[in-house]
Known about the structure:
Blueprint: H1 2-13, H2 15-32, H3 39-45, H4 48-53, H5 58-61, H6 68-74, H7 86-101, H8 103-113, E1 119-124, E2 130-135, E3 141-145, H9 148-164, H10 173-185, E4 218-219, E5 224-225
Antiparallel strand pairs: 1-2, 2-3, 4-5
Helix pairs in contact: 1-2, 7-8, 7-9, 8-9, 9-10
Amino acid sequence: MLGLGTAALYAVGGTILAIAVFTLGGAVIMLHGYLIPGTPQLTRALPESILVAFGKNETDVFSSNLPATKALLAVGLLDEDYRLPDEIEERIQATAAKGVNDSDVLERAIVKKFDGVVEVSARRNLGGGENWFAFDTDEVAVRQWEARAVAALDMAVIDLLAERIPDWDDRSSADRTAMAALLRYGLQMCPVCGNEFAEPEGQHRTCCGGRSLVGERRCSACDYALVDQNDLPTNVEDLA
Length: 240
């Protein structure tokens, strides 16, 4: 595309203008990997047949075993600022609202989405909210959530991940949990009160000086965090 544009300018405006445009365009491509702004998003939206015609195959679009963050970026569930596109947020919020408003709906969704879960229990915590637990046949809690809203958001997020991530069924339980947490972290609005999730002042740092998602983004009105320490793998490379 850059070559065609340069040739056209050469024909109309002469050598100097064509060289200047070619040099500038080449610099942009070197920095970003593409010339036209928004190219990655546009590419992800194109049908596979068109991508193949332009030399991109399925492996280029999505490779199995991508780390969690790269997989979410590859399928367009996160944007380049690690936030959810508006249409994705709206879908998650609409689905989560059903679980927030109806305990039976939420219980059925949890049993359906987690293998081996036979019972779901909600228990009041000291702050007046609900902790949700999923138990297996041995009455062992295989999954728990700090708040009803987090459980409902998780169910909505898992629906989307199962639909959009090509190798979702082949991923480990820990990897699925991490991907769901990353997607929740990109949400803007609490499905219970409608307030925006907020970051506390200052950076939350780990003991090694790295940035941690745990305990950061939360609903100040309902007093729950979107991500807790059990959601993320101990090896940070699994997220990258």
